[in-house]
Amino acid sequence: MGRGRILALPYPAQGHVSPMMAFCRVLEKHGFKITFVNTDFNHKRIVRAGVGKDSLSMGSNNINFVSIPDGLDPEDERNELEFPKLCQSMLLTMPAKLEELVRGINSNAAAASGGRGGLAGGTDDDDDDKITCFITEFGMSWALEVADKMGIKGAAYYPMCTTFCNATSFFAPNKELEAFLNSDGIKGCGTDQLPEEVQKILSLPTGDLDTLKIIFEYSARNLKAMEKTEWWLCNSAYELEPDEFAKVPRLLPIGPNLAEISGSSRAQFFQEDSSCLEWLDQQPPCSVIYVAFGSVATFEPTQFQELALGLDLTNRPFLWVVRPNIINSSSCAFPDEFKGTRGKIVTWAPQPRVLNHPSIACFLSHCGWNSTIEGLSSAVPFLCWPFFADQITNKMCICDVWKVGVGFDPDDNHGIIRRSEIKKKVDLLFGDDNIRARSSQLRDTVLSTTAEGGRSSKNLNKFINWLRE
């Protein structure tokens, strides 16, 4: 019996594309075919990073990569500061383009089925090429409106931690935005409309009322569209966030879904430098500080220089990922006094393989959810340096709930994390055997829930059975 083809639609950012791809790889192993939809802009980035269109097959005949426009011009910025502009543009452009794409795919599948089936009208297996289910990220759930219009079932997938999901869902679609905002932006802590803990978790900006309204309206549109499906899936585990899952019983933990260690199937926006693995082979066990801040976060030049000098000051080997656009400046300038003799610097790393390397001692991270679950799954303690959004929440979980990492304290005068603070916290982490022991225990918990018979594994099987109906 044909199962149909799944359409997967992630939010167009590296930290969202990667977990959706990991989830699709899981579904592929259960026999499903997937059409993976990127924006035109990101599709080109993935092709460049993989060195050619052939890289998109990634050893699979069951995942097909396609793209549609996001409505912005190629030269337009798509970083976190331009999030509202991108959201507006996507809502204006992508629904019609997505419907056009799906109708074309299903029309071609029907034509092929008729041609092969003759008078019998085709076989059940021919239906495998028709889109029969949408899996959209929470942040792209407006696409479920398209699925509903076309009579196609759908599911929503949340790639981040449940704590942040619950906080962002606080702004329900039927709420008046003005209840949360005033002329200065977010209302102050302690108001009836915006609980203090929600403001802390969201780390929302003040000022720019129009921008905040765009964010809330986009979220409200997605939340309303999510009511069209009974399946709200989450890339987390009940064992990691039991209290948060208890608040939203319909949110089903099926993770964490981890990227394959090989790195060849992770749909990367940047070309990976695997030479760092050879360098790691030459380092002593549990000695290297791995430093990576994801694909979006940026530094002011002064803070970047303090980080460089802080790594030097630790007098420990380090592997540092420095993207070309990581500094808010026209050039990536290391300070003159930076030696870096004990480190290796790359523009992008095969992170799952790095974190599983025996020479890695700790992970200096921006605390994005993908990095968080990859670190947890490798029993690597964290040095937490979050920037915005869910990274703030993840840092709280790492340091205060799971107690498998430490954070940095900026100085009182300029808000800069100084080189001395970096050395202090590195030394603290290297000397804390309890953190390392808790990291190992948490790794075992994370891996057991996705193993056969684990809670996340059982939930995933329920969803797969529904897909096959």
From TrEMBL:
Q: Which InterPro entries match?
A: UDP_glucos_trans
Species = Juglans regia
- Superkingdom, according to UniProt? Eukaryota
Family, similarity comment: Belongs to the UDP-glycosyltransferase family.
- Cite the Pfam families for this sequence: UDPGT
- List the SUPFAM superfamilies hit by this protein, alphabetically: UDP-Glycosyltransferase/glycogen phosphorylase
Q: Which GO molecular-function terms appear in the entry?
A: UDP-glycosyltransferase activity
Supply the alphabetized keyword list: Transferase
Report the protein name in the record: UDP-glycosyltransferase 83A1-like
